[in-house]
Write a structure and sequence with these properties.
Blueprint (H helix, E strand, L loop, with lengths): L5 E8 L3 E2 L9 H16 L8 E5 L11 H8 L8 E4 L5 H14 L5 E9 L8 H8 L6 H7 L6 H11 L4 H20 L25 H4 L20 E10 L1 H7 L5 E10 L9 H12 L8 E4 L4 H11 L12 H4 L3 H19 L3 E8 L3 E9 L1
Parallel strand pairs: 3-4, 3-5, 8-9
Antiparallel strand pairs: 1-6, 1-7, 2-6, 5-6, 7-10, 9-10
Protein backbone atom coordinates (compact mmCIF):
# COMPACT_ATOMS: atom_id res chain seq x y z
CA UNK A 1 0.00 0.00 0.00
CA UNK A 2 1.20 3.48 -0.78
CA UNK A 3 1.86 5.67 2.25
CA UNK A 4 -0.44 8.67 2.40
CA UNK A 5 -0.59 11.89 4.37
CA UNK A 6 -2.76 12.07 7.50
CA UNK A 7 -4.94 15.12 6.95
CA UNK A 8 -7.14 16.83 9.53
CA UNK A 9 -10.33 18.14 7.93
CA UNK A 10 -11.68 19.92 11.01
CA UNK A 11 -11.27 20.12 14.77
CA UNK A 12 -13.98 21.21 17.17
CA UNK A 13 -14.49 21.28 20.91
CA UNK A 14 -17.09 22.04 23.51
CA UNK A 15 -16.57 24.93 25.87
CA UNK A 16 -14.59 23.72 28.89
CA UNK A 17 -16.91 23.80 31.88
CA UNK A 18 -16.18 23.96 35.59
CA UNK A 19 -17.00 21.42 38.28
CA UNK A 20 -20.15 23.28 39.33
CA UNK A 21 -20.90 25.00 36.03
CA UNK A 22 -23.37 24.76 33.17
CA UNK A 23 -22.04 21.45 31.84
CA UNK A 24 -21.58 19.69 35.16
CA UNK A 25 -24.67 17.49 34.80
CA UNK A 26 -24.25 16.57 31.13
CA UNK A 27 -23.90 12.81 30.77
CA UNK A 28 -20.41 12.04 29.43
CA UNK A 29 -21.79 10.07 26.46
CA UNK A 30 -23.95 13.04 25.49
CA UNK A 31 -21.00 15.37 26.01
CA UNK A 32 -18.90 13.30 23.63
CA UNK A 33 -21.85 13.00 21.25
CA UNK A 34 -22.09 16.78 21.07
CA UNK A 35 -18.50 17.09 19.86
CA UNK A 36 -18.99 14.26 17.36
CA UNK A 37 -22.20 15.79 16.02
CA UNK A 38 -20.57 19.18 15.61
CA UNK A 39 -17.68 17.60 13.71
CA UNK A 40 -19.97 15.70 11.34
CA UNK A 41 -22.08 18.79 10.71
CA UNK A 42 -19.10 21.07 10.12
CA UNK A 43 -17.37 18.71 7.71
CA UNK A 44 -20.53 17.61 5.92
CA UNK A 45 -19.37 14.00 5.81
CA UNK A 46 -21.60 10.97 5.60
CA UNK A 47 -21.21 9.56 9.14
CA UNK A 48 -21.56 6.09 7.68
CA UNK A 49 -18.24 6.55 5.90
CA UNK A 50 -16.33 6.84 9.20
CA UNK A 51 -14.30 3.69 9.81
CA UNK A 52 -13.58 4.08 13.50
CA UNK A 53 -14.14 6.44 16.43
CA UNK A 54 -11.21 6.61 18.88
CA UNK A 55 -12.13 8.44 22.07
CA UNK A 56 -9.80 9.23 24.95
CA UNK A 57 -11.24 8.98 28.46
CA UNK A 58 -9.30 8.50 31.68
CA UNK A 59 -11.77 7.64 34.45
CA UNK A 60 -13.67 4.80 32.82
CA UNK A 61 -16.16 4.21 35.61
CA UNK A 62 -19.93 4.57 35.82
CA UNK A 63 -21.24 6.73 32.96
CA UNK A 64 -17.76 6.85 31.42
CA UNK A 65 -17.43 3.07 31.32
CA UNK A 66 -18.79 0.69 28.70
CA UNK A 67 -16.59 1.88 25.81
CA UNK A 68 -17.69 5.50 25.77
CA UNK A 69 -16.27 6.01 22.27
CA UNK A 70 -18.99 3.65 21.08
CA UNK A 71 -21.79 4.91 23.33
CA UNK A 72 -21.09 8.55 22.47
CA UNK A 73 -21.30 7.75 18.75
CA UNK A 74 -24.59 5.90 19.18
CA UNK A 75 -25.93 8.60 21.51
CA UNK A 76 -25.40 11.04 18.64
CA UNK A 77 -27.74 8.93 16.52
CA UNK A 78 -25.08 7.86 14.04
CA UNK A 79 -24.94 4.52 12.15
CA UNK A 80 -24.57 1.36 14.19
CA UNK A 81 -22.09 -0.23 11.77
CA UNK A 82 -19.40 2.34 12.71
CA UNK A 83 -17.27 0.98 15.59
CA UNK A 84 -15.81 2.94 18.46
CA UNK A 85 -13.31 2.38 21.24
CA UNK A 86 -11.87 4.10 24.27
CA UNK A 87 -8.21 4.91 24.88
CA UNK A 88 -6.50 5.57 28.19
CA UNK A 89 -2.99 6.99 28.24
CA UNK A 90 -3.85 9.09 31.27
CA UNK A 91 -3.93 12.81 30.49
CA UNK A 92 -2.64 12.14 26.96
CA UNK A 93 -5.55 9.85 26.08
CA UNK A 94 -7.06 11.88 23.25
CA UNK A 95 -3.67 12.97 21.96
CA UNK A 96 -2.94 9.25 21.72
CA UNK A 97 -6.30 8.87 19.94
CA UNK A 98 -5.04 11.40 17.39
CA UNK A 99 -1.80 9.40 17.04
CA UNK A 100 -3.68 6.15 16.48
CA UNK A 101 -6.00 7.80 13.95
CA UNK A 102 -3.06 9.29 12.06
CA UNK A 103 -1.19 5.97 12.14
CA UNK A 104 -4.23 4.14 10.75
CA UNK A 105 -4.38 6.58 7.85
CA UNK A 106 -0.61 6.69 7.31
CA UNK A 107 -0.48 2.89 7.18
CA UNK A 108 -3.12 2.81 4.46
CA UNK A 109 -5.41 0.55 6.50
CA UNK A 110 -8.13 3.16 7.02
CA UNK A 111 -9.18 6.34 5.21
CA UNK A 112 -11.50 8.16 7.62
CA UNK A 113 -11.11 8.05 11.40
CA UNK A 114 -12.35 10.32 14.17
CA UNK A 115 -10.01 11.09 17.07
CA UNK A 116 -11.85 12.46 20.08
CA UNK A 117 -11.81 12.81 23.85
CA UNK A 118 -14.27 13.32 26.67
CA UNK A 119 -14.27 13.70 30.45
CA UNK A 120 -16.84 14.95 32.93
CA UNK A 121 -14.89 15.31 36.14
CA UNK A 122 -17.96 16.70 37.91
CA UNK A 123 -19.70 13.33 37.54
CA UNK A 124 -16.68 11.00 37.65
CA UNK A 125 -14.01 12.59 39.87
CA UNK A 126 -10.32 12.22 39.23
CA UNK A 127 -8.95 8.95 40.63
CA UNK A 128 -12.48 7.70 41.32
CA UNK A 129 -11.19 4.15 41.09
CA UNK A 130 -9.31 4.63 44.38
CA UNK A 131 -12.61 4.19 46.22
CA UNK A 132 -13.31 1.04 44.21
CA UNK A 133 -9.89 -0.39 45.09
CA UNK A 134 -10.48 0.40 48.75
CA UNK A 135 -13.81 -1.47 48.73
CA UNK A 136 -12.10 -4.41 47.06
CA UNK A 137 -9.44 -4.43 49.74
CA UNK A 138 -6.62 -4.13 47.25
CA UNK A 139 -4.28 -1.45 45.90
CA UNK A 140 -3.03 -0.19 42.58
CA UNK A 141 0.61 -1.11 43.23
CA UNK A 142 1.50 -4.80 43.14
CA UNK A 143 4.52 -6.58 44.63
CA UNK A 144 6.63 -6.05 41.50
CA UNK A 145 6.06 -2.31 41.57
CA UNK A 146 6.78 -2.07 45.29
CA UNK A 147 9.97 -4.08 44.90
CA UNK A 148 11.15 -1.62 42.26
CA UNK A 149 9.93 1.73 43.63
CA UNK A 150 9.25 1.04 47.29
CA UNK A 151 6.38 2.38 49.34
CA UNK A 152 7.02 6.04 48.47
CA UNK A 153 4.09 8.19 47.43
CA UNK A 154 3.46 8.24 43.69
CA UNK A 155 1.17 11.14 42.80
CA UNK A 156 0.90 14.01 40.37
CA UNK A 157 0.95 16.49 43.25
CA UNK A 158 4.21 15.15 44.67
CA UNK A 159 5.60 14.94 41.13
CA UNK A 160 4.82 18.61 40.52
CA UNK A 161 6.52 19.57 43.79
CA UNK A 162 9.60 17.47 43.01
CA UNK A 163 9.87 19.20 39.63
CA UNK A 164 9.61 22.62 41.27
CA UNK A 165 12.41 21.66 43.64
CA UNK A 166 14.64 20.11 40.96
CA UNK A 167 14.38 23.10 38.63
CA UNK A 168 14.47 25.75 41.35
CA UNK A 169 10.97 27.05 40.66
CA UNK A 170 9.57 29.05 43.55
CA UNK A 171 6.01 30.02 44.26
CA UNK A 172 6.15 33.65 42.99
CA UNK A 173 7.41 32.47 39.59
CA UNK A 174 4.71 29.81 39.40
CA UNK A 175 2.03 32.35 40.29
CA UNK A 176 3.23 34.81 37.67
CA UNK A 177 2.96 32.03 35.10
CA UNK A 178 -0.57 31.17 36.27
CA UNK A 179 -1.72 34.78 36.10
CA UNK A 180 -0.38 35.02 32.55
CA UNK A 181 -2.37 31.91 31.59
CA UNK A 182 -5.59 33.58 32.74
CA UNK A 183 -4.63 36.84 31.04
CA UNK A 184 -3.98 35.13 27.71
CA UNK A 185 -7.15 33.05 27.87
CA UNK A 186 -9.27 36.09 28.73
CA UNK A 187 -7.77 38.06 25.85
CA UNK A 188 -8.34 35.20 23.43
CA UNK A 189 -11.96 34.91 24.55
CA UNK A 190 -12.59 38.66 24.31
CA UNK A 191 -11.03 38.79 20.84
CA UNK A 192 -13.15 35.86 19.62
CA UNK A 193 -10.17 33.59 18.94
CA UNK A 194 -12.08 30.53 20.21
CA UNK A 195 -15.38 31.27 18.49
CA UNK A 196 -14.68 29.20 15.39
CA UNK A 197 -13.58 26.13 17.33
CA UNK A 198 -16.26 25.95 20.04
CA UNK A 199 -19.59 24.18 19.55
CA UNK A 200 -21.82 25.86 22.19
CA UNK A 201 -23.66 23.54 24.58
CA UNK A 202 -26.55 24.30 26.95
CA UNK A 203 -26.21 27.98 26.08
CA UNK A 204 -22.52 28.05 27.05
CA UNK A 205 -20.26 29.41 24.32
CA UNK A 206 -17.07 30.18 26.26
CA UNK A 207 -14.75 28.46 28.70
CA UNK A 208 -16.03 28.87 32.25
CA UNK A 209 -12.87 28.64 34.32
CA UNK A 210 -11.08 31.78 33.12
CA UNK A 211 -10.67 34.46 35.80
CA UNK A 212 -9.67 37.73 34.10
CA UNK A 213 -9.36 39.59 37.39
CA UNK A 214 -6.99 37.18 39.13
CA UNK A 215 -3.58 38.42 40.24
CA UNK A 216 -0.50 37.34 42.16
CA UNK A 217 -1.72 39.09 45.30
CA UNK A 218 -4.86 36.93 45.39
CA UNK A 219 -2.94 33.78 44.59
CA UNK A 220 -0.40 34.41 47.33
CA UNK A 221 -3.13 34.09 49.99
CA UNK A 222 -3.91 30.48 49.09
CA UNK A 223 -2.51 27.67 51.23
CA UNK A 224 -0.11 25.21 49.58
CA UNK A 225 -1.48 21.78 48.70
CA UNK A 226 0.76 20.50 51.51
CA UNK A 227 2.87 22.18 54.13
CA UNK A 228 6.16 23.26 52.58
CA UNK A 229 4.95 22.85 48.98
CA UNK A 230 5.36 25.48 46.29
CA UNK A 231 2.23 24.06 44.62
CA UNK A 232 -1.18 25.61 45.28
CA UNK A 233 -4.55 25.19 43.57
CA UNK A 234 -3.89 28.42 41.68
CA UNK A 235 -0.87 27.02 39.85
CA UNK A 236 -2.62 23.73 39.06
CA UNK A 237 -5.05 22.79 36.30
CA UNK A 238 -8.74 23.01 37.07
CA UNK A 239 -11.21 20.15 37.51
CA UNK A 240 -13.26 20.39 34.34
CA UNK A 241 -15.83 19.10 31.87
CA UNK A 242 -15.28 18.95 28.11
CA UNK A 243 -15.01 17.08 24.83
CA UNK A 244 -13.39 17.53 21.43
CA UNK A 245 -13.17 15.73 18.10
CA UNK A 246 -10.98 15.81 14.97
CA UNK A 247 -11.56 14.17 11.57
CA UNK A 248 -8.42 12.47 10.21
CA UNK A 249 -8.48 11.29 6.58
CA UNK A 250 -6.31 10.08 3.73
CA UNK A 251 -5.70 11.74 0.38
CA UNK A 252 -8.11 9.27 -1.20
CA UNK A 253 -10.82 10.30 1.25
CA UNK A 254 -10.26 13.96 0.45
CA UNK A 255 -10.92 13.24 -3.21
CA UNK A 256 -13.73 10.75 -2.73
CA UNK A 257 -15.71 12.89 -0.30
CA UNK A 258 -14.79 16.33 -1.63
CA UNK A 259 -13.15 17.43 1.61
CA UNK A 260 -10.73 20.30 2.22
CA UNK A 261 -8.07 19.77 4.91
CA UNK A 262 -6.98 22.41 7.41
CA UNK A 263 -3.90 20.62 8.75
CA UNK A 264 -1.91 17.41 8.66
CA UNK A 265 -0.18 15.31 11.28
CA UNK A 266 3.45 15.02 10.24
CA UNK A 267 5.44 13.54 13.12
CA UNK A 268 4.62 11.58 16.27
CA UNK A 269 6.46 10.45 19.38
CA UNK A 270 5.57 8.87 22.69
CA UNK A 271 8.06 8.22 25.49
CA UNK A 272 8.32 6.86 29.00
CA UNK A 273 10.04 8.75 31.81
CA UNK A 274 10.59 8.55 35.57
CA UNK A 275 7.19 7.56 37.08
CA UNK A 276 8.04 9.19 40.41
CA UNK A 277 8.68 12.62 38.94
CA UNK A 278 5.88 11.52 36.60
CA UNK A 279 5.36 14.84 34.81
CA UNK A 280 8.71 15.40 33.07
CA UNK A 281 7.83 13.38 29.96
CA UNK A 282 7.26 16.41 27.69
CA UNK A 283 11.01 17.12 27.80
CA UNK A 284 12.21 13.86 26.16
CA UNK A 285 9.03 13.63 24.04
CA UNK A 286 9.72 17.03 22.51
CA UNK A 287 13.33 16.14 21.81
CA UNK A 288 12.25 12.83 20.27
CA UNK A 289 9.64 14.30 17.94
CA UNK A 290 11.97 17.07 16.78
CA UNK A 291 14.74 14.56 16.15
CA UNK A 292 12.42 12.33 14.15
CA UNK A 293 11.19 15.31 12.12
CA UNK A 294 14.70 16.66 11.55
CA UNK A 295 13.66 19.99 13.04
CA UNK A 296 14.78 22.31 15.82
CA UNK A 297 12.81 24.34 18.34
CA UNK A 298 13.29 27.37 16.07
CA UNK A 299 11.37 25.60 13.28
CA UNK A 300 8.18 25.51 15.38
CA UNK A 301 5.83 28.48 15.27
CA UNK A 302 3.51 27.59 18.17
CA UNK A 303 3.65 25.22 21.13
CA UNK A 304 0.98 23.69 23.34
CA UNK A 305 2.39 22.16 26.52
CA UNK A 306 -0.39 21.17 28.88
CA UNK A 307 -0.51 23.20 32.07
CA UNK A 308 -1.22 20.32 34.44
CA UNK A 309 0.90 22.31 36.89
CA UNK A 310 2.95 25.44 36.29
CA UNK A 311 6.31 23.72 37.06
CA UNK A 312 5.71 21.22 34.24
CA UNK A 313 5.71 23.89 31.53
CA UNK A 314 8.45 26.00 33.08
CA UNK A 315 10.84 23.05 33.49
CA UNK A 316 10.03 21.88 29.93
CA UNK A 317 10.78 25.35 28.56
CA UNK A 318 14.07 25.51 30.46
CA UNK A 319 15.23 22.15 29.15
CA UNK A 320 14.06 22.41 25.53
CA UNK A 321 14.54 26.12 24.89
CA UNK A 322 10.92 26.50 23.79
CA UNK A 323 10.05 30.20 24.08
CA UNK A 324 7.20 30.91 26.48
CA UNK A 325 5.98 33.73 24.26
CA UNK A 326 5.07 31.11 21.64
CA UNK A 327 3.75 28.57 24.15
CA UNK A 328 0.08 28.33 25.15
CA UNK A 329 -0.45 31.71 23.55
CA UNK A 330 -4.18 31.62 24.28
CA UNK A 331 -3.86 30.35 27.81
CA UNK A 332 -3.77 26.81 29.11
CA UNK A 333 -5.29 24.40 31.59
CA UNK A 334 -4.55 26.58 34.61
CA UNK A 335 -7.02 29.10 33.23
CA UNK A 336 -9.26 26.99 31.03
CA UNK A 337 -9.31 23.63 32.78
CA UNK A 338 -8.09 20.11 32.13
CA UNK A 339 -10.89 17.61 31.40
CA UNK A 340 -8.38 14.74 31.45
CA UNK A 341 -9.32 12.47 28.54
CA UNK A 342 -10.44 15.40 26.37
CA UNK A 343 -7.47 17.69 26.84
CA UNK A 344 -5.23 16.24 24.13
CA UNK A 345 -7.91 16.77 21.50
CA UNK A 346 -8.70 20.21 22.90
CA UNK A 347 -5.04 21.28 22.68
CA UNK A 348 -4.82 20.01 19.09
CA UNK A 349 -7.98 21.95 18.23
CA UNK A 350 -6.62 25.13 19.79
CA UNK A 351 -3.26 24.69 18.07
CA UNK A 352 -4.69 24.13 14.58
CA UNK A 353 -7.05 27.09 14.76
CA UNK A 354 -4.33 29.36 16.09
CA UNK A 355 -1.95 28.34 13.30
CA UNK A 356 -4.64 29.44 10.84
CA UNK A 357 -5.30 32.69 12.70
CA UNK A 358 -1.63 33.65 12.77
CA UNK A 359 -0.50 32.12 9.48
CA UNK A 360 2.00 29.87 11.24
CA UNK A 361 3.25 26.71 9.57
CA UNK A 362 4.10 24.21 12.32
CA UNK A 363 2.81 23.56 15.81
CA UNK A 364 4.11 21.16 18.45
CA UNK A 365 1.85 19.71 21.12
CA UNK A 366 2.96 17.78 24.18
CA UNK A 367 1.68 16.91 27.62
CA UNK A 368 2.66 15.07 30.78
CA UNK A 369 0.85 11.83 31.55
CA UNK A 370 0.33 9.45 34.45
CA UNK A 371 2.94 6.77 34.93
CA UNK A 372 5.68 9.07 33.62
CA UNK A 373 4.78 9.18 29.92
CA UNK A 374 4.29 11.81 27.23
CA UNK A 375 3.09 12.20 23.67
CA UNK A 376 4.41 14.85 21.31
CA UNK A 377 2.86 15.72 17.96
CA UNK A 378 3.94 18.03 15.16
CA UNK A 379 1.04 19.41 13.12
CA UNK A 380 1.37 21.51 9.98
CA UNK A 381 -1.19 24.00 8.73
CA UNK A 382 -2.63 23.27 5.27
Amino acid sequence: MAVTEAYIVDAVRTPVGTRKGVLADVHPADLGAHALTALVERTGIDPGAVEDVLMGCVSQLGPQAGVIGRTAWLSAGFPEHVPGTTINRACGSSQQALHFAAQAVLSGTQDMVIAAGVENMAIVPIDANAAVLERMGTRREGPGWIERYGEQEISQFRGAQLIAEKWGLRRPQLEEFAVESHRRAARATDEGRFTGQIAPLNGLDRDEGIRPDTNVEKMSTLPPLREGYEITAAVSSQVSVGAAALLVVSEDALRTHGLTPIAKVTTLSVVGEDPVLMLTGPIPATRAVLRRAGLSIDDIDLFECNEAFAPVVLAWAQETGAPLERTNVNGGAIAMGHPLGATGAILATKLIHELHRTGGTRGLQTMCEGGGQSNATIIERV
